[in-house]
Amino acid sequence: MSSSKSPVRVRFAPSPTGDLHVGNIRTALFDWAFARHTGGTFIFRIEDTDKERVTDQYIEAAAETLRWLGLDWDEGPGVGGEYGPYLQSERLDIYREWGEKFLQTKDAYHCYCSNEELEARREAAAKAHKAPGYDGACRELSDEMIEKYRSEGRKPVLRMRMPEGSTTFHDLIRGEVTFDHSFVPDFVLMRSDGSPLYTLAAAVDDVLMKITHILRGEDLLSSTPRQIRLYQAMGVAKESYPLFAHLPFVMGADNTKLSKRNGEVSIAWYRERGFLPEALCNYLALLGWSPGDDRENVSLEEIAALFEVERVNSSPARFDIKKLEAINGDKIRALTIDQFLERSLPFLIDGEVVSGNQDELVILKKALPLIQERIVTLSEVPQMLSFLFVGSLTLNEDSSKKISDPLSQEVLQASLTVLTNLKDWNLEEIEKALRSELLEKRELKPRLAFSPVRIAVTGSHISPPLFESLELLGKDRTIARISALIA
Ligand code: GLU
Ligand code: ZN
């Protein structure tokens, strides 16, 4: 079966009960790429029927995360579209009407069982080694029984009737999948207060929004036979059912399911640490999919151009932060200096290294090329460049100790003399002077020779290249910093 079913309409339908995570965004990215690849429509739908856990703040944060990543949607919050509203909390009447219809057609029925009764029967079934799940007790209630339950003040839930047999569908990633209904008991559609459950709301919306393809996490595989049952009850012809593609799990580096402990943290977390959106998209695209050759650097445009759902692997993908970091470094190196400046500036301002004025920007444009090859995330920029913007440095304990040993003191004294005597303060002269004084005359190893100077001038043994740093800092400040550390 082919995945071409035209015109393609795919949706990303999160329940934002917090900031979106790696797994959510991998799904969003594949949905987006599939829509863009096929020239279809990408729909962003918010599944917020659980109003207590899905807040406006999380909905806005989810939209902001998608925008930041460049995953633009054609229909959804803020954009509109002819199948709206796209917030399920604004569609409750629609679900209630469908629930009503299913009750009339007897596809669904009222179930009056209390939680305690259900629990007691579940335990008994487990003891008797019978299949778990609802036992169908309320399927054929007599009018007398209904009357009795009502008089007891019981409020029913609405339950879908699953016929005997099985459901088979073709999953675009895992092929033919069959569910025996003995493992798919009658399921709840609506709570006693008339609020819908996920299974009902998602299926109704997928039909009404004319969704053609459902790409979603493997954790939802087991809800598929229930949703197919709902399409059928809604009167959708079989050939019009959406096609399914269940994306493989993302595992942590330790091969257990991705969790907070092993990398499943919010996209906001990566953003705050200076990961670039193009690096996250690139890396997440490779979690279960490949562009067809062994390239590891792909742009969002290339992902859209190359994405084929059939090339998604069915086995679990492994999240590896080291690989994400490597890709992030590559993406940083690919930036122009203006782009690098624009991306770094918020980190420098947040870190109170600069305020963003013109003079600072001039210095930054000279300094940023020095570190572009050396950093992995943007959050390293402030610490690497702050020495250029502070009056005097405060050394940590290690550095202070290092700088006060006799050899360091000798190096600083010698450097101070040659640098003070320099007429032209430029890279070439600085390098020549320090090399001849420290390496040639004193025959020191470069690390021993330059480390004290580096610490004195930049405050750290990790810095941009030394001679360039001195040139940028200027003669006066260099001399002042070295002198200040000579005992
Ligand atoms: N709202 C569901 C979730 O966040 C996804 C629904 C779906 O893709 O079918 O897990
Ligand atoms: Zn019941």
Walk me through this protein's architecture.
The structure is a single chain. The protein has helices at 22-38, 56-69, 92-104, 115-127, 143-151, 198-208, 224-233, 267-272, 277-285, 300-306, 321-333, 337-350, 358-371, 381-385, 397-403, 406-420, 427-441, 446-458, 466-473, 475-484, and strands at residues 9-12, 41-44, 108-111, 157-160, 166-171, 175-180, 187-190, 213-217, 243-247, 250-251, 317-318. It is mostly helical and 487 residues long. The strands form 5 sheets. Strands 3-4-7 form a 3-stranded antiparallel sheet. Strands 1-2 form a two-stranded parallel sheet. The longest helix is centred in the first third of the chain and has 17 residues, at 22-38. The N and C termini lie far apart (80 Å). The chain binds glutamic acid and zinc ion. Residues 13-15, 47, 202, 216, 220 line the site of glutamic acid (GLU).
What structural keywords apply?
mainly alpha, Rossmann fold, binds glutamic acid, elongated, 3-stranded antiparallel β-sheet, 4 domains, 20 helices, disordered N terminus, binds zinc ion, 487 residues, single chain
- What would you call the shape? elongated
Alpha-carbon distance between the termini? 80 Å
**Mean pLDDT across every amino acid position:** 94
Radius of gyration: 31 Å
What structural class is derived from the secondary structure elements?
A: mainly alpha
Q: Give the helix level as a range of percent.
A: 40-55%
Oligomeric status: single chain
CATH architecture of the largest domain: 3-Layer(aba) Sandwich
Q: What is the class of the largest domain in the CATH system?
A: Alpha Beta
Record field, number of beta strands = 11
Main beta sheet strand tally, sense and closure? 3 strands, antiparallel
Count of domain modules: 4
**Any idea of the CATH topology of the largest domain?**
Rossmann fold
Strand content: 5-15%
The CATH superfamily title of the largest domain: HUPs
Strand order within the widest sheet? 3-4-7
Q: How many helical stretches?
A: 20
Low-confidence region ranges: 1-5
Q: What ligands are attached or bound here?
A: glutamic acid, zinc ion
